[in-house]
Design goal:
By secondary structure, this protein is α/β, with parallel strands linked by helices. It has 20 helices and 21 strands. It has a 6-stranded parallel sheet with strand order 3-2-1-4-5-6, with helices on both faces. Helix 2 crosses helix 3 and helix 5 runs parallel beside helix 18. The N terminus is likely disordered.
Length: 558
């Protein structure tokens, strides 16, 4: 691709006209334009002669040809009527009325023949729509849901340029105010147009061309970081050899996170040191068929119980820290709660909650890269039964995971967890529904590709859903910020921080002002742990907070 920008529409037409040496060289459109212009000139000349004659014979005013021409042009273009108005005779007034009407009609014809086709053929120069960039991300040939990624970047305040080899798609995205250019990212001029010399990170999702993109990026900017997304882990060494800083096998990443969610309940090892004895941390699951599914957070017995503090919640697979009181709980949402053991006994009497299960027998559907990563990441003590349609994978049960008899052969009715890691979303949704119909108490964890299929999977009966596109978008956003990647579980940490800047505020006020960064769990005063929202912080108190490592590092005294 040439680095020269495309010419504008007028430049293109002039260049084409300069190449015409005879009438035979003209295109069909050029001949139409010439005929139209000839007809327009003829009409104006005839109108001029008629007007000059009418003014002399009917109005008694002997005007010149050029005076008549000016009046005709003024009238037809509706810019004025000259010094001759008003006219005395009805015939001249009728003539002028016709000139006005015909001028408007000719104007519409001119738009249709000359103006509109000219700009319909005008090339769109996407480079001109880019804002100034520095320390931005250049994304090359991303094929995992461009809208999801770009929305994540914009929500995170990350500057970016997406290089899309499909010009029509690039124009469509640019028309929706995304920062996109078209071009081949293996060409230096394309990456230079994307400002790679000032970029902080290059993301390449070009499959077999990942190495070429990485090499080209380093030719333009030897210091730029490069992250490559792949479908299989077998090219990691080769990509690292050509300068790729990080290689992410997407299916393997999704599989490991599903396995982690299935087997590791957050132990909150830091909680005991932060909150002391007598207060515990528990994860409670909203029953998918219980009365709290769909209820607002503020209406749950957790919020209404003064002895319990809601630290965070996994809702539709996303962490809310803390959740808004008006937010509705999805079926199988996981709530992280702090309080005395006795208060949890009261909550367990409610029909809406169940405790997280320790999985000792797991059925895994799909033995592609994701499913293989699941089985390799599960602990040895977990009894694993695998399902796949391909006999060569060595699956324990060969067949489609959406078939009831196949799931029955895999022992789903006796298993404690069903992990759906198939590559096709339609199959995953059907397998989820069939699995739920056969085992109502089993926990079902599902991998889907499309972000919009997350809600469908929950509706089908899933307990936890991981969207490949959304997960990768967040990973890339975290990479752009050089932040640690958020895993599905185990990232909530408890800590004791200085409370000087919070003196005079009550716990409820702190929680409302945390803005999804961290949450105030309680405070320690004279050896006693207090968690009531109305407790006001005083000098000498120690504040106990919960959040992720990255968020807690921003707090004083941590």
């Amino acid at each position: 691709m040439s680095s020269e920008k495309p010419q504008g529409p007028l430049e293109q037409q002039l260049r084409q006209l300069r190449s015409v040496e005879s009438l035979g060289d003209m295109t069909g459109r050029q001949r139409t334009v010439v005929k139209f212009l000839g007809a327009l000139v003829s009409i104006i000349l005839v109108y001029t002669v008629i007007y000059q004659t009418g003014m002399r014979t009917l109005e008694g005013d002997d005007i010149s040809f050029f005076h008549a021409l000016e009046t005709v042009v003024d009238t037809m273009t509706t810019t004025g009527y000259g010094a001759d108005a008003p006219w005395i005779t009805p015939y001249m007034n009728l003539l002028i009325i016709w000139y006005q009407i015909s001028g408007v009609l000719i104007g519409f014809i001119t738009l249709r023949i000359l103006i509109i086709p000219l700009f319909e053929r005008a090339p769109v120069v996407l480079d001109d729509r880019l804002t100034a960039k520095d320390d931005h991300v250049v994304v090359c040939e991303y094929g995992r849901g461009k809208d999801v990624l770009l929305n994540e970047f914009e929500a995170s305040g990350i500057d970016y340029v997406l290089v899309d080899p499909d010009k029509d798609e690039a124009i469509d995205l640019s028309n929706r105010d995304y920062q996109v250019i078209d071009g081949d990212p293996t060409k230096m001029e394309t990456l230079q147009r994307a400002g790679v010399e000032n970029a902080a990170l290059v993301v390449t999702d070009a499959r077999a061309r990942n190495a070429s993109v990485a090499l080209t990026a380093h030719q333009c900017n030897e210091d730029v970081r490069v992250l490559s997304l792949t479908e299989t882990p077998d090219r990691q060494d080769a990509l690292e050899q050509v300068g790729v800083d990080r290689v992410v096998c997407v299916p393997s990443l999704i599989g490991r996170q599903l396995a982690e969610k299935a087997t590791a309940t957050a132990t909150f090892a830091t909680a005991a040191d932060a909150i002391g004895d007598g207060t515990v941390v528990r994860e409670l699951v909203v029953r998918h068929d219980g009365p709290l599914a769909g209820a607002r957070v503020e209406d749950t017995p957790i919020v209404t119980n003064p002895d319990l503090t809601l630290v965070g919640a996994w809702i539709d697979g996303e962490l809310r820290l803390p959740p808004r009181s008006s937010e509705r709980l999805s079926p199988n949402a996981v709530l992280v709660v702090v309080g005395p053991e006795a208060a949890f006994e009261e909550v367990h009497g409610e029909d809406g909650f169940r405790s997280l299960t320790t999985y000792d027998s797991v059925v895994v559907a799909g033995l592609g890269e994701a499913g293989t990563a699941v089985t390799e990441s599960l602990p040895d003590q977990v009894d694993v039964t695998t399902i796949d349609v391909d006999e060569s994978t060595g699956a324990d049960v060969v067949g489609n995971a959406s078939d009831g008899p196949v799931l029955a052969d895999a022992g789903i009715e006796d298993a404690t967890a069903f992990i759906v890691a198939v590559d096709d979303d339609e199959t995953a949704l059907l397998a989820t529904a069939v699995g739920r119909s056969m085992a109502n108490e089993i926990d079902i964890l599902v991998r889907v590709t499309n972000a919009e299929d997350v809600a469908k999977a929950f509706d089908a009966g899933a307990d936890y859903v991981l969207s490949e596109r959304r997960t990768i978008a967040r990973l890339l956003a975290a990479e752009a910020h050089r932040e640690p990647v958020v895993h599905p579980i185990g990232q909530i940490r408890f800590a004791r921080v200085e409370s000087d800047e919070f003196v005079g505020q009550d716990l409820g006020e702190i929680q409302r002002n945390a803005n999804q960064e961290w949450v105030g769990v309680g405070l320690e005063r004279d050896g006693e742990f207090l968690a009531d929202d109305t407790v006001r912080i005083a000098d000498g108190d120690t504040l106990v907070v919960a959040g992720t490592d990255e968020r807690l590092r921003r707090l004083p005294g941590e």
